[in-house]
Write a structure and sequence with these properties.
Layout lengths: L2 H47 L8 H18 L3 H27 L5 H26 L1
Helix pairs in contact: 1-2, 2-3, 3-4
Amino acid sequence: MKSYPKCRVAIAATVLMFTSSARADEASYSTVVKERDSVLSEILAVRESRRSTGTADEESIAAAQLTLYSFRRDVATATSEKIKNQELIVRIFEKKLESVEVMTKAGLGGKIAILEAKAPLLEARQRLEELRLKGKA
């Protein structure tokens, strides 16, 4: 029966090893998430800074915003934070639709352009409503 204490020690060592490994993995993940957020934020800041020189490309700014807010929504642990970022995403697509509608009224677009702008907006709204339902549950 002397092997029983050895077995307990082996089990404890194994549990400790997995726990330490999990903490290291969490720290590594957290580091990558913070760095990625920083890089995406910097990309957006650089694109937005070009507005002051008149060389801003609103499409690339919207794309950078969409990338950043989608990332933040996806890594957020709190549903309220996911909702906040999804609301920002919905606003991006609402602005895009408004822009397309103005262009269409000016004769620079057609029905297909409006439909193509509405589809991602509705997808974003759908996801927002799903997150809100999840938040209520």
